[in-house]
Every structure is written in structure tokens, then in C-alpha cells.
Amino acid sequence: MDAAALSPNERFLLDFHRSHAGATSEFFGPARAPEGGDSYDRLAALVPAGGDAVVLDLGCGDGLLLERIRQRRGSGAGLIGLDMSADELAAAARRLGPEVLLLNERAQAISLPPASVDVVLSHMALMLMGDPASVVAEIHRVLQPGGVFSAIVDGGPAPSDDGGPAPSDGFACFVESLRRTMRAAGRQPLQLVHPTFASQQALLAHLGEAAGFSDARVKELAVSRREPPSRLWELMLLTYDMAYLSPGEVERVRRDFLDAVEALRDAEGMVACSIGLRQFTARKQG
């Protein structure tokens, strides 16, 4: 991977994951959907149990999704993880062992041959990739005709506007605390998510017939977990925004957040934390 070709956002992400390898799976792994399972399970379920399909995980992080797929099919053969972070891939290698192929590459330039993959999956990584046209073109190139692509991306919380009702969820409280701190500091929000991947309509358009896909669809979902306020704050420290703020700003967010969630404790002292997600799925024509 050519480090000189990386964008400022990519350099930020590499620095973050150098210090926080495994942060995404720590944050989302225990978060459950109302119908059971988690967001990794939703993607893993697209891979037939016991089959021999070749599966590529784009932005595989520390390998949790690939581990779930291996558990379903009983083998790591045919599983491939791609990530631009060597630190995440080192964590994935420790989790998965040598049976799974791991590639230190960008999704805009995948080294795999054309039509060599049956399923391409991505968990909370697609939205962070620049040059969406190149990413989608590479996904299409490596997929077999009829192959499936599915990605889970951020759906975002629904924080209240100023003067609106107080948030009733731990993650919404965090977003509100972050917004207040950044406004007070005259700061602009961190912009890591590419607009194409943040927009349902834009991404569906990219996965349309013109790009060689069919049956493109989106499903809204939410995952949640219950934690004591102190543990929730530890999880919030794993978000990209916290690496962007100064130590003083982080402390202001912490105090504001812990004050806000105190009123949300249930009888066991726990606070619910829910995050909205979107799952995009499409099939390569042919």
C-alpha cells in the first residue's frame, strides 16, 4: 500500500486504529438487534453455512465478522480480509490464524483477480472510504456474476435540536454533549463519512444497473446494549470524534455526558445505548 497516496482522512484513520485496534468490534460486537443477534450476524447470515463460497470482508478490522462466518461454515478456507490498517490486520491474524488470507490494501485497488469472489461484505467501513466510484467498481470487478455485496453503515442517532426534548438514550446523549462542546469551542464536526455513503439514495444509485448491480435495497436497523454510565463513557472514547478533540474538550464532553445520562439509569443502574444502522445489499448482474 502506497502511504504517500493516502488522503488526510485515511491518515487519521490509520493513526486511530494504530492506537485502537479492535475498537469497532468492541463497540458493536455486544450490541444486539431487537430480533436477536448483532450487526455482524446479519452479514454473516448471507454466507451459506457449510459452503465453500469465497468471501471478502472489506475493512475487516480485527476479524470478528470473518470469525463469525468461519463458525457458521466450520472452516476459514475461502475467507479473505482486507484492511489498510496493518495494526488491525495483526489483531485479525491473532484471532483467525493462518487459514484466512489477509490483505493490507485499500478497497479502491484490490489485488484479487476479476470474478474471484462470491460474496463481498463490509461492516462499518464502507462509509469511511473515499472515491466511492472506484470502491464500487472494484467490488463489481472481483464479484462473480450473481455474487452478493452487502454493507452495514452508520444510520446515525436522532439527537434533539436545541430547545427540543432531552435525549432518552445514552448514545443520543453523547452526540448532544459532543455537539455542545464543539459549538462552544467553535469547532466544525469531524467529516470522515463520504457523502455518497452517508446518503441512502446516493448509495443505491451507485449500486444500480449503470454500475452493473441489480436488486439493490436498504434496510434500516438498530442495535443496542445496556451498560453502567462509566462503561458507556469508555465506549464513547472509542469513537473517532474523541481522537479529534483536545484533552480539555474530551473532559468537557465527559462531564456533560455523565451528568446527562444519570437521569437515564434504570432500576439496575444501567443506561440503554442504541445506534441506528443501514444495511445495503445488491447483486452483481449476470
Write the layout of secondary structure elements.
Layout: H1 8-19, H2 23-28, H3 39-44, E1 55-58, H4 64-73, E2 79-83, H5 86-96, E3 101-104, E4 117-123, H6 132-142, E5 143-154, H7 170-184, H8 195-198, H9 200-206, E6 213-227, H10 229-236, H11 240-244, H12 247-261, E7 271-284
Specify the structural class.
alpha/beta
The CATH homologous superfamily name equals Vaccinia Virus protein VP39
Main sheet characteristics: 7 strands, mixed
Instruction: Compute the separation of the termini in Å.
Output: 31 Å
Number of strands: 7
Helix count, DSSP H or I runs of 4 or more residues: 12
User: Mean pLDDT, rounded to whole units?
Assistant: 90
SSE order: HHHEHEHEEHEHHHEHHHE
Under the CATH scheme, which architecture would be assigned? Answer: 3-Layer(aba) Sandwich
Name of the level-1 CATH class: Alpha Beta
Explain what the structure shows.
Helices cover 38% and strands 21% of the residues. The protein has 12 helices and 7 strands. The protein has helices at residues 8-19, 23-28, 39-44, 64-73, 86-96, 132-142, 170-184, 195-198, 200-206, 229-236, 240-244, 247-261, and strands spanning 55-58, 79-83, 101-104, 117-123, 143-154, 213-227, 271-284. The protein has a 7-stranded mixed β-sheet, sandwiched between helices. It is globular. The two termini are 31 Å apart.
